[in-house]
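Weekly structure sync, notes
Attendees: PL (lead), two postdocs, one rotation student
Agenda item 3: pending single-chain targets
PL asked that the sequence for the first pending target be pasted directly into the notes so everyone works from the same version. It is reproduced below exactly as submitted, 209 residues in total.
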Amino acid sequence: MSSSEISPLFPTPFLRAPGALPPALVNALVLHFSQQAQQENNASTNLSHTRMLKPSESPLLVDAAALITPKLSEFGALMFGEQMGWSLKEMWVNVLDQGGRQAMHNHANSFISGVVYLTPTHESSRTVFMKSPGGTDFSFKNDHAGVTTGPFNAEKWISPNPAAGDLVLFPSYLMHAVPPNEGERRITLAFNAIPARLDSWGYQVSFSG
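Predicted structure, written out during the meeting:
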């Protein structure tokens, strides 16, 4: 009797680059931008953000962008099957104090989103990625103590515990959230990116900004 074969159809890519930003740059970003995170989050009073920033607004962001952009090209080739130019559309710093959380969301008007962790992250506040909710069809589940959760039936995935300087990239449509932070202040640099253009058999859509 022949053995069965399982094929993971259409997997979602997720890139993790440990130590993508060096400690000196990470510390400078924390020092410069943590005090600028004055915009309160709509869902959590213990979470605040800076305004949306362009890399050109700060030499620190220029340095960060220079290290992030090659990873965007690498990741974009997985998503679109071609190495092409990418640019960081916007960047912002998040400051999550104890008890704060980030509600489930995704990022509009971009193709790749990412996070650079600028401080140690308590295990309770690791970024959680989840299947997109929605639809109006009835849903049936097999959900009880005896169920074994795997990649084909799980509804969420908890990312590995990051260290300061670690980078993650993911498709912008992917829903994600941060559970309540039970540890010390957690600071991250988040961003969205767009390609120079998409070409579908001679019909091109170009992006600029």
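Discussion points:
- The longest helix spans residues 59-80.
- The chain has a mean pLDDT of 95.
Action: rotation student to compare against the earlier draft before next sync.
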